[in-house]
Amino acid sequence: MRSYSLIAPAKINLYLEIIGDRPDGYHELSMVLQSIDLGDRVEIRANGTEDFRIHCQHPEVPCDRTNLAYRAAELLKTTYPNAFEQYGGADIFIDKQIPVAAGLAGGSSNAAAVLVGLEMLWDLGLTQPELQDLASQLGSDIPFCITGGTALATGRGNELEPLPDLEGLYVILAKYRSLGVSTAWAYQTYRQQFGSSYVRESTDLAARQKRVHSGPIVKAIALRDEMKVVECLHNDLEKVVLPEYPQVLKLRQTFEQFDVLGTLMSGSGPTVFALTDSREKAEQIRAQVQNTLGNPDLEFWIAKFINTGIQLAPGVH
Ligand code: C5P
């Protein structure tokens, strides 16, 4: 039976601005997304049956139909029934390294890997836009997870413009093991607290887009001015998540006390990250934050920026 083994990287948000609400119930966003070399390994193995089966050891990852990776397989099956007839189902093995419900797009990246892996397994010959269109139907972050690197994401987060690679930056990620934030909750709360102003101000999308403030960070990336990039780090969702989760606020403040280039909550949280320019410094900052907070529930990861999305895993496929 054929199989493909893929690496599905996590992402962080260097910038997340909520511009307004959309008729489809989502929010109009302007984001800068960055892939990092913390990734799950996803193996897609043809199983000669009529089913997809998810295998994952992580206690918080469901192995049923609610898993986004399963929904990705189902979407390909319904879109390309002839290929499914010909090639049949698959076993999907997820080796989880990316923390769950953490604002790092772990679930989205797994789904992106399933799309890429099944596309190869079923010899579909899809173009990049065709694959991106399927990805958009599944979730806002999934198109980015396929291509990865550094990108400006607008619309729901699914309209991508690649940006020049940011090289040489390291990220220290920290998350309380027992804490997860629902993305839907974060956006809904933001809408409740801050939505009235932009709705009243203008319902015209073109007018809203004029209010976008991502220009400086995009320019800094274009100039590869990393010092300027870190000055522009911003995430609107901090306004609702930090007051609700005092531990996350404390973590954010603790990072600020040390020699970091910048610090921010990623996506809808609760992961907080800090940037630095070497692995040694990253290790040092990790130790300092760990010593300061001394909480056994706190987990850390160190990763570097990468310029790729879903990739074949090195070695046998
Ligand atoms: O697209 P995805 O399913 O990943 O989004 C998860 C949730 O985040 C959505 O159900 C929605 O509540 C919120 N969201 C939003 N606007 C976006 C992206 C996500 O309101 N642009």
Automatic annotation (TrEMBL):
It is an enzyme of class 2 (transferase). Its EC number is 2.7.1.148. InterPro entries: GHMP_kinase_C_dom, GHMP_kinase_C_sf, GHMP_kinase_N_dom, IspE, Ribosomal_Su5_D2-typ_SF, Ribsml_uS5_D2-typ_fold_subgr. Pathway: Isoprenoid biosynthesis; isopentenyl diphosphate biosynthesis via DXP pathway; isopentenyl diphosphate from 1-deoxy-D-xylulose 5-phosphate: step 3/6. The active site is at residues 11, 141. It catalyses: 4-CDP-2-C-methyl-D-erythritol + ATP = 4-CDP-2-C-methyl-D-erythritol 2-phosphate + ADP + H(+). It holds the Pfam family GHMP_kinases_C. SUPFAM superfamilies: GHMP Kinase, C-terminal domain, Ribosomal protein S5 domain 2-like. Residues 219-292 form the GHMP kinase C-terminal domain. ATP binds at residues 99-109. Residues 67-149 form the GHMP kinase N-terminal domain. It comes from the Bacteria. Keywords: ATP-binding, Isoprene biosynthesis, Kinase, Nucleotide-binding, Transferase. Catalyzes the phosphorylation of the position 2 hydroxy group of 4-diphosphocytidyl-2C-methyl-D-erythritol. Belongs to the GHMP kinase family. IspE subfamily. This is 4-diphosphocytidyl-2-C-methyl-D-erythritol kinase. The lineage of its organism: Bacteria, Bacillati, Cyanobacteriota, Cyanophyceae, Oscillatoriophycideae. The gene is ispE.
